[in-house]
Known about the structure:
- The protein is mainly α.
- It has 10 helices and no strands.
- The two termini are 33 Å apart.
Amino acid sequence: MLSSTLIVALVVFIGAFTQGLAGFGFAFFSLPIISLVLDFQTSVVILVLMAQVMNLLILKQHGSLPQWGDVLPLTVATLPGIPVGVAMLQYLPVYVLQGTLGIILVLYCLYMWFVCPVPRVLGKAWIVVAGFIAGCLGGALNSQGPPVLMYVALQPWDKDRVKATTISFFIASGVLVIAAQAWRGLITADALELSALCLPGVLLGATCGRIAYRRLGEGGFRTVFIGLLFALGLFMLVKSAGDVI
């Protein structure tokens, strides 16, 4: 138990550092490794719990208030997408869903790198599109982040607004996830205890990530942001290919 706890604490520290730096990446980095030492259900529950505390800390440290006119419509638009995603999971293999999302992310990042589109303000309809697709992916793969990350990356926003929007979206959607997990009885005493044991590593990692974030200029932040999206896409492609083989 002790060795497992130390492994989980180290992993969540690195994941929290990534989230504190870029505004996302905590579950993407932590879940595949933690699920090797804990059962998958427990891994998901403790990461959701720790992510809420971590994201609240990051938002407080950030000091830049989110634009609720962006965050709330994104969150509301996820709701009708969730049952669609659950239905997709029933009719399509997970590797097909993961592989498709991986291809989209990789192509998107290549587009951002080689075409270098000029950032522009996207219309309100794109908020609905991004939120709905996020809900679909949340219901199917518990991966609601990528569409929102792609949406904010295309906007002509500075790094503070990008990060504040993504973190606030994760907080809002996290409340819905925790409520659903509690309703299904998934939040157990053991999950709460392990989350509490690892929480210092999460808070320290997020704080160190914040320090690194402050050293990044606008260009450096966008490079890290798109680079992590590319890594996420590659990970999903490799995982889906492994499931097929």
